[in-house]
Amino acid sequence: MAATFVLWGERDRLLALKAVQRAPIGQQVRISKRDRSVEQNRLLHGCLGDISDQLPWPKEYGELHDLIWWKRRLSLQWMIDAKLEVEVVESLEGEEVGLFLPHTSDLTVEQYTSLIEFVFSFGATRGVVFKEKKPDNGPEPPPREYDQ
């Protein structure tokens, strides 16, 4: 059984410590930054879906593209605008080049939030009507333990 604890407060820290004390020798313990939330993931993909349904590209004479097409291009533009490193790679034969972009699942919560804001702004300034509302950054969920 795997358990993940989000440390929202001292109570959560104590629960995590107890779980570590009960764990059999040989188990792995990992402390990491919090991943993006399901809500953030839903919001990004909702915004990308609205853009893909409504915005032909190039705008003047283009066609509609799918969500993945937009996700790749908007992620790249966000990285360029944010001055994040974009990895340019050469093929093994040296005849072709390509870009390696990080998976959005590898972004920090802060980076993911920034990407969502970029995507929302991009679409809004080009007339996209979003079905989903922007997050209101309301209260965090209560502390909990959940199995993976």
What does this structure look like?
- There is one protein chain.
- Helix content is 41%, strand content 9%.
- It has 148 residues and is mainly α.
- The chain has two domains: 1-32, no CATH class; 36-139, NinB fold (Orthogonal Bundle).
- A two-stranded antiparallel sheet has the order 1-4.
- A hairpin with a 6-residue loop joins strand 2 (87-90) and strand 3.
- The longest helix has 17 residues, at 38-54.
- The model is unreliable at 137-148 (pLDDT under 50).
Return the average pLDDT rounded to an integer. 88
Distance between the termini: 8 Å
**Global Rg:** 20 Å
Overall geometry: extended
Helix content: 40-55%
How many individual domains? Answer: 2
Strand order of the largest sheet: 1-4
The CATH class of the largest domain is Mainly Alpha
Model regions low in confidence, pLDDT < 50 over at least 5 residues: 137-148
- State the CATH topology of the largest domain: NinB fold
Residue share in β-strands:
5-15%
The CATH architecture assignment of the largest domain turns out to be Orthogonal Bundle
CATH homologous superfamily classification of the largest domain:
NinB
User: Which structural class should the secondary elements be placed in?
Assistant: mainly alpha
Number of helices: 4
Got a strand count?
A: 4
Order of helices and strands: EHHHEEHE
For the report, how would you describe the main beta sheet? 2 strands, antiparallel
